[in-house]
Amino acid sequence: MNITNRCSNRCKFCIKNFRKGVGGFYLELLQEPTSIQIINELKDVLNTKNWTEAVFCGFGEPTERLDLLLEITRWIKRYCGKPLLFRVNTNGQGYLLNPGRNVIKELKEAGINKVSVSLNASNEKNYADICQPQFENAYNAVVDFIKKAKNELLVEVTAVSFSDIDIKEIAKITKRLGIKFRRREYIPAVY
Ligand code: SF4
Predict the structure, then answer these.
(1) Alpha helix locations (H) across the chain?
(2) Cα 132 to middle of ligand 1, angstroms
């Protein structure tokens, strides 16, 4: 589910910099969908296929719309005929984007099982350079998000195979945190 195109980062490698979609799907939102619009679309497809997983991902950071994400998760859990795994692909800045909220607890209570967190740097300086976050100290906040999530949810950390990114070092940090690491392939610009 592509619920927003907004993001608190401006990663150098972000696919949004040079494409309007991926995998044959056009993902640039002219307007963010309301929960009613999403639910109406879900009603048409939810029980038509043998879905195993529901993923909030898309062309932006899903926790930019935390309340909508929680609402849609609860709705699917109520109306889907089968148990699904619920995953959020995130930049890990949910606490920065939603100050005062207990983001991990709220995700868990709504029914999210797993977060896949993009780390993409091994320290604050590299993170600022590669991901160009709107927040200061974003890297530490992402690592903190990962640590908190580990206590409540399934967690995976990812990094993109991109020239400036030290995959080995990020894999080491992730291992030290006791979390599974996955390298993601960089989707190069095609003009
Ligand atoms: S965190 Fe993801 S959506 Fe946001 S700029 Fe980076 S790659 Fe793009």
Answers:
(1) 35-45, 66-79, 94-97, 103-110, 124-131, 138-150, 167-176
(2) 10
